[in-house]
Amino acid sequence: MNPIAGLGGRVGLKGTDGPEALARARALGAVPTAVPRCALALQSLLPLADRIEVLAPPGPMGADAATDAGLRPRLLAGLPPLLGDGTDTSRAAARMLEEEVDLLLFAGGDGTARDVVGVIGTRIPVLGVPTGVKMHSAVFGTSPRAAGQIAARLLGGDAAVRLREAEVMDLDEAALREGRVSASLFGVAHVPHVRGLVQASKAGARPDDEAALDALARVILREWPADRLMILGCGTTTRRIKRAMGFDGTLLGVDVALGGRLIAADVNEAQLLRLLDRAGPGGAGILASVTGGQGFLFGRGNQQISAAVIRRVGRGNIQVVTGAAKLATLDPAVLHVDTGEADVDAMLAGYMQVHTAPGQRMVMRVAAPH
Question: Please, which residues bridge with residue 318 across strands?
Fold first, then answer.
């Protein structure tokens, strides 16, 4: 596992690849979450503990999470002292390949997926526990618990769990931090698949939605109270609303507007909470979009809108805006949340209206992590 995966999410960074980004995340007070999220996945393997052997690199690269989950891992031998970087991930993956494991379960984001698949290719099955900031590849469970359930079903001999080829995306993280998406296909992996528990690849906006969303942006601005904070999530859909107010905003970050003008750009969790303190109860709302192809509402690339922020704003003050054509591509037709806190995920679960055009809405089911 990548022990620093996801470290930059709540503090508004677009990832933690490279020493500079890592140092900045720590300076901003980022708190590691990868180990407990991985341990949550591994808890699903406890009923199989007497039938399987768990191998792990030492310390925070695997053994700590396995031990926290109640498992007794065998440490991988023959590894040099580990720092937890991409080189160490590749070395650990090579040792897993030598051990001929039945499943390589890794925790991280797209960068960790590339490090793993770059070594093993399709020679052994892999499955990702989502702990990163960005997870555009189709090799991750929809949540840590979902990844653990898939692993348990595969290792338990469930014949319904089949392997399929899944895309691993190569994203330029430096470009992401500058607000540009530069992605290409890195490779494919063999991934155990259970419908609804494995996420799809991220898909872009669809041209069919553009005119309707532009019109919807103008309606939202007319109806939004001038004295109410507007917390605008990431992506091209919410950028249409920003542009309707006269500014570009941050494509891959979270911006805040008041009275039709930008008051805070590319904010992090702490900044949002301070703004909410000043706004008072009911003084703010969230405008969020859905990740194309994957159906994520919160927990993928917009971790700045954290569980604490959502809890303060309240479910009734969240407005979802997404094109109808994008929703039509979701399989299954479900929205996902993965905030990292079970009570907030449960609060968001149920049915939610999604605005697709002026006067048009679709009712979608929001699923909490399995």
Answer: 286
66-85 burial, b for 16+ CB within 10 Å, e for fewer? beebebebeebeeeeebebb
Q: What share of the chain is helix, strand, coil (3-state, %, to 5)?
A: 35, 20, 40
Position 286, amino acid: I
Locate 47 and state its tokens: 């009923």
Beta bridge partners of 164: 191
287 three-state secondary structure? strand
Query: Is residue 355 within 8 Å of 323, Cβ to Cβ?
Result: no
Spell out where 102-254 has E strands.
104-108, 126-130, 162-171, 183-193, 229-232
Instruction: Measure the CA–CA gap between 204 and 336, rounded to whole angstroms.
Output: 17
Residue 82 is encoded by which pair of tokens? 């580990």
- What is d(CA 250, CA 246) in angstroms, rounded to the nearest whole number? 13
pLDDT, tens digit, for every residue of 13-43? 655 555 665 566 566 665 778 899 999 999 9
pLDDT at 316 over 90: yes
Name the DSSP class of 198: B
297: closest CA among 275, 313, 273, 321?
321
Rounded CA-CA distance 302/9 in Å is 7
Q: What is the pLDDT of residue 362?
A: 95
Q: What is the pLDDT of residues 236-288, one digit of tens each?
A: 899 999 999 999 898 888 999 999 999 999 999 999 999 999 999 999 999 99
C-alpha–C-alpha distance, residues 368 and 176, integer Å: 28
Copy the structure tokens of residue 105.
């379960």
CB contact set of 192 (below 8 Å; sequence gap of 6+): 103, 125, 127, 150, 151, 153, 154, 161, 162, 163, 198
Q: How confident is the model at residue 329 (pLDDT cuts 50, 70, 90)?
A: confident
Whether 55 contacts 72, CB under 8 Å: no
